[in-house]
Every structure is written in structure tokens, then in C-alpha cells.
Amino acid sequence: MRIEQIMRHDPTRVGPDEPVSKVVAWYANPGNRSRYTYVVDKKGVLKGVVTMMELLGLFLPPALVDAHERGETAEPEVIHKVLESLKTNKNRPVREIMRTDLPTVHASSFFLDARLLLRERKITALPVVDGQGVLVGEVTRRVLLRLLDNILHEPDLFQLKKDNKHIFETTSEFFIG
């Protein structure tokens, strides 16, 4: 079974010059379940990823959180610093905070290759790229669990031929950019 058969085909994307405020607004929407926003250039080539953790680190810096936990910073000062950080950083382009160290898989790879990378890197999603580095999809832990659930209910599903491109529809809820 190949990754192309199970991957989400339209992961959330954003251009490198989009402001981080757009990504914050998207993640804040209760209907959005994706944890990764992929940064792609105009040709769709994957450049990086922005997760909730990068955003929280930008607006709620670890030093501020640690100082508050140690009792060194009172609540009003924390609120003031968070508001200041929001004003200062809301228009920063996502390219300045994106991570570029993410592993990728190809659509033609065996599905266990994705599971191995997810486990080794302790991440929840992997971008799927073509030979030119263009983002074509995403495979997540949830997608792998959905595959297992489907196989539990329909064991013959595991025997599908490689030319069957989609086992089940997987879509993202929103597209930025």
C-alpha cells in the first residue's frame, strides 16, 4: 500500500511572506484540526512548516513563561508583555519562524516508511512531496489510524492494487495563500 493511496491531498499551505497573524487566526478557529501549516513557494515547492508550537514560542516566549512559573513576573506584567509581543510580531512573515528541518516522504513510498519517520522524529504529520519537492499531500498519524480502522472493517482493502490512487477521501478544512 502506497502513501498516495492514504494521504491527505490538500494540506494547509501558506506563502513564505504571509503574516503570522493569518496562521494564528486559522489555528484559533475551532473547526481546524490540522497541526501543520506548510510553507510553499509560488510553484508549490515545500520550504518549511509552521506549527502551533512555533507560534506559541513567538508570542509566549519560553523565558516569559518560565519567569511567570518561578513567580518572578506578575500576571499584569505577563499580559503586558504578551500584548506587546502580539503587536510587534503579528506582521512578521512566516518564513522567519518556519522550521526547515522536517523530513518528507514521496507519494510512491510504502506506508510503513511514513510510520517509521513519524515515530523516529516524534511528529504527528509528514509532508508528501514529488520529485521536484512540490508539496502534494500529507500523511498523519490519524490517517494511518483511519487506514487501520478501515482494514479492520474491510480486510480486503489491504489487498488493493497500487494503481488505486485513493482509498478514502482526506481533505483539509481551509487553505491559506
Account of the 3D structure:
With 177 residues, this protein is α/β, with parallel strands linked by helices. The protein has a single domain, classed as Roll (CBS-domain), CATH 3.10.580. The protein is built from six helices and six strands; from the N terminus they run βαββαααβαββα. The strands form two sheets. Strands 1-2-3 form a three-stranded mixed β-sheet. It starts with 12 loop residues before the first strand and ends in a 24-residue tail after the last helix. The relative contact order is 0.26.
Question: What's this model, at a glance?
Answer:
The protein is of the alpha/beta class and 177 residues long. The protein is built from six helices and six strands; from the N terminus they run E-H-E-E-H-H-H-E-H-E-E-H. It has a single domain, classed as CBS-domain (Roll).
CATH architecture: Roll
- Which CATH first-tier class would you pick? Alpha Beta
Q: How many domains?
A: 1
Percent of sequence in beta strands: 5-15%
Helix content: 25-40%
Order of helices and strands: EHEEHHHEHEEH
- The class by helix and strand makeup works out as alpha/beta
Instruction: Quote the distance from N terminus to C terminus.
Output: 32 Å
Sheet bearing the most strands, described? 3 strands, mixed
Query: What is the CATH H-level superfamily?
Result: CBS-domain
Residue-averaged pLDDT, rounded? 85
**Computed CA radius of gyration, to the nearest angstrom:** 19 Å
Uncertain runs? 170-177
CATH topology value: CBS-domain
